[in-house]
Amino acid sequence: MKKRIDKINYYLDIAETVASRATCLRKKYGTVIVNHDEIISTGYCGAPRGRRNCCDLGYCTKKKLLPDQRHGGYDACRSVHSEQNAIISASREEMMGATLYLVGYRTDNHNYEKGAAPCLMCRKLIINAGIETVIVRKNKTEYIVYHVEDWIKNDEFLNGQLAY
């Protein structure tokens, strides 16, 4: 008898499928927000509605404007993050106590993004949305669990440890 996939990897697999719609030329991210074992919302990274995506332009605007910057520089990126797109597609009432599942992988080799985690802006949105837990895929079966309460208690803006 074949072993059934666990629920966390089930939702992470869905987030990975959502990521396949992402329009970034460098990285694909997908998000699924789940509450009471029901999918509330999904999101992938891409330009705001009506604007051209990097995949349509044929170049990465962030790389063009900031060629040497690896982390940060989000203002130069055309994309709305997958977490942000999922959050704006659901009501706060639905997200209270929810879990956000996040998968990111590189387009050049399809490897999962090492050290993937929501950026500081997305963390602030996750906190305000009322989401309790964030689960990020490390590889096909392993993942990291973040408790949003820890982000509130360990305020990186107060302790001077801004981590991107």
Written account of the structure:
With 164 residues, this protein is an alpha+beta fold. The protein has one domain (7-49, 80-153): Cytidine Deaminase, domain 2, CATH 3.40.140. Helix content is 30%, strand content 21%. It has seven helices and five strands; from the N terminus they run αββααααβαββα. The chain has a five-stranded mixed β-sheet.
Count of alpha/pi helices = 7
The string of secondary-structure elements, in order, is HEEHHHHEHEEH
Got a strand count? Answer: 5
Count of discrete domains: 1
Largest sheet, in brief, is:
5 strands, mixed
According to CATH, what is the class? Alpha Beta
Distance between the termini: 43 Å
CATH superfamily: Cytidine Deaminase, domain 2
| Helix-strand makeup class | alpha+beta
Task: For the structure shown, list the relevant keywords.
7 helices; five-stranded mixed β-sheet; 164 residues; alpha+beta; Cytidine Deaminase, domain 2; single chain
Strands, helices and their partners?
Blueprint: H1 7-19, E1 27-35, E2 38-44, H2 54-57, H3 61-65, H4 82-88, H5 92-95, E3 99-106, H6 120-129, E4 133-137, E5 143-147, H7 148-153
Parallel strand pairs: 3-4
Antiparallel strand pairs: 1-2, 1-3, 4-5
What's the gist of this structure?
This protein has 164 residues and is an alpha+beta fold.
